[in-house]
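Summary for the steering committee. The consortium agreed at its last meeting that each partner would contribute one worked example illustrating the joint modelling workflow. Our contribution is presented below. We chose a case with several input lines so that the handling of multiple components could be demonstrated. No manual editing was applied between input and output; the record is shown as generated.
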Amino acid sequence: MKNITPKLIKLLKEGYCTPQIAKIAKKIKEPSTTIHYYIKKLEKESAIKTYKAVFNYGKINEGFCAYLFIKLTSKAGADPDKLLGELSRYEEVESADILAGEWDIILKIRTKNQDEYYRVLKNILAQEGVEKTTFFHFTETS
Amino acid sequence: MKNITPKLIKLLKEGYCTPQIAKIAKKIKEPSTTIHYYIKKLEKESAIKTYKAVFNYGKINEGFCAYLFIKLTSKAGADPDKLLGELSRYEEVESADILAGEWDIILKIRTKNQDEYYRVLKNILAQEGVEKTTFFHFTETS
DNA sequence: CATATTATTGAATAATATTCGAATAATATT
DNA sequence: AATATTATTCGAATATTATTCAATAATATG
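What follows is the complete predicted structure of the assembly.
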């Protein structure tokens, strides 16, 4: 038995999806070529970045989710984008954004459970430039 | 000139997208019917909820983004799901989750700018059951 | 107001998803 | 271990859908 499901999920998290022009056309009651025209326009001006699957994370072994706030050392504070790029590379990091105020960066992290989360957290804390962190978590059931 | 772009964006935020089976098949080097089989399986067991567009929010007039933490009154604390349902109905609320710990609920809110955000915040604070809030925000450019 | 650019759409075509069926493989049952 | 049942794999046929193209209309620009 081939087990391509993990590969599949990985791809569908990144993209590999596309708009359903015919369905949208029917819904808005416009010709599908018109819908096509507008969608391509949004894509061209990169207002639309990609199309992705939305999962029931509890069912794909990523039921634990945490928002991790990071404060940078004053040295790293000069270039938070660089650290952001590195943190985005973790496959468990779903999103990474630069905040205004008390905390510098917020990460959204998904793992199987809290233990796995702490494993990831340990690696993040080891990153050059990270001064301190705090987090808020929740669990997706079903 | 028709302006169907706002309608289009609204639909693509909810769903109205679909996986690209042929592209995935080529990438994983498996027959497209096999990919189809696995995707339908994931959909049937509702591991995949839907497929959505990912936007460059700065370009669709939603450049301001905030994570809003909510603490419930002891009365509302008994049934946070109910409030969660109500808060999810705001079109500016992108996600709503129930936290463990100090704060009860986290909302991700997207608006055009900070003024618009405060308008939404005012409505949320007026909701029965909300005791206090705090938030962290950022801006998506380009 | 003349011209250029952008928007709109039907018809034709190309690409893609889906269904079907049959073969095989995995798993469960006696 | 034999048999039955269920799940997987995948090619061929079909149904749907996206895309291209070309013609027209609307709008913007000088």
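The first strand of chain B starts at residue 17 and ends at 19. Chain B touches chain A through 52 residues (CB under 8 Å).
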